[in-house]
Amino acid sequence: MKIRMTAITTAALCLGLAAAAVAQDNPVAKREQMMKQVGASVGALGAIAKGEKPYDAGAVKAALTTISTDMKVFPDQFPAGSEVNSAAAPAIWDNMDDFKAKSMKLASDADTLLASMPADQAGVQQAVQTLGANCGTCHQTYRLKR
What we know:
One of its GO terms (molecular function) is iron ion binding. It comes from Aliirhizobium cellulosilyticum. One of its GO terms (cellular component) is periplasmic space. The structure is a single chain. The chain is mainly alpha-helical and 146 residues long. It has one domain: Cytochrome c/b562 (Four Helix Bundle (Hemerythrin (Met), subunit A), Up-down Bundle), CATH 1.20.120. It has helices at 2-25, 27-49, 57-73, 91-94, 96-116, 121-142. The termini are far apart.
């Protein structure tokens, strides 16, 4: 039984590493991976804000750190020619400076929240409102509706 679990775990790790390697070479896959990480982080904060999960300072810090880190390099994942097979709107490449500014605003807000670190559920609720407003603004302009 231990051998089987070890084999399954090893296979899962290899597949994860292979997916990460592919994402590194493919800007569309890389940015989709980053958005999944940001989405999961916002989801974790949302669960705390709604009271579905108890307040956990470590989880809040990890989520805000992920959002900050990913959004600082997110615009770099949009090189010319990577518009195909993507939910990214062509407006990104037409308005790259604005797109970068919106990404940096989200990163900056996450950094500000990290510096003041929400201390309870109410603080996380306010954080989610701040972050969510940034997400919505960018998605309305720069994400294709499917």
